[in-house]
């Protein structure tokens, strides 16, 4: 399977952006669980596409509401992600959530992240 531009962008920029903005990102654990689900081989292709699209919206610099707007910057990102998440919720497993919690802990401790 060929890697799409969005997949490449998400893989390259997701964790650096999350680390920079962790304190301001609501529902960071769900965001990271969505990342792990999107790149899990067991996740169906349609669900992967939906999640990668939502994650790309999070990492790309063009936004409806720019991320630097205090208090509102990530609201559009979270709305897109939560909509996508609700569509593919059954494909986000407890393992994805466990890995997300561990990753958030490492990010807060500034430890290396393994994608």
Automatic annotation (TrEMBL):
The entry's keywords: Membrane, Transmembrane, Transmembrane helix
Residue intervals of the DUF1232 domain: 47-82
Mode of membrane association: Multi-pass membrane protein
Organism expressing this protein natively: Aestuariivirga litoralis
Predominant cellular place of this UniProt entry's protein: membrane
Protein name: DUF1232 domain-containing protein
Annotated GO CC locations: endomembrane system
Keyword Cytoplasm: no
Compartment annotation: Endomembrane system
InterPro entries: DUF1232, UCP031804
Pfam hit, one: DUF1232
